[in-house]
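Incident review: delayed structure delivery

Summary: a single-chain prediction request sat in the queue longer than the usual turnaround. Root cause was a stuck worker, restarted by the on-call engineer. No data loss occurred. The affected request and its eventual output are reproduced below so the record is complete for anyone auditing the incident later.

Affected input:
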Amino acid sequence: MADRKALEAKRKTYMSCCDIYKENGNVIVSMEMPGVSKDNLDIKVDGDLLVIIGKKNVNQPDGKYMIREIRDGDYQHSFTIDETIDRNKIEASIKNGVVSLKLGLKESEKPRKINIIAK
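Output delivered after worker restart:
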């Protein structure tokens, strides 16, 4: 069997599929990362860069593959976030291989209703 460290050094990194939309005054990022657990997920904000890395553990069988369609490798996606995002209001969750991020907008960026005064 091949040396595990040598295999990990050759691991590929894939960009995960994602959706981004606004909802209730937040920006929502939803990404597919099948095979990634909470313990193997790393999310960081570095200046204006939001980086999401998911390490996938694939069991390597001792036998020879006849068909191999399940990707071996990790996921990585990064986004530039602007000054409208409140860096202290970022929440993350993972469920059924889907990572969800809720990026809170700064209060000054949220839509607000203007009251009209009749004179």
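Verification: The mean pLDDT is 85.
Action items: add queue-age alerting; document worker restart procedure.
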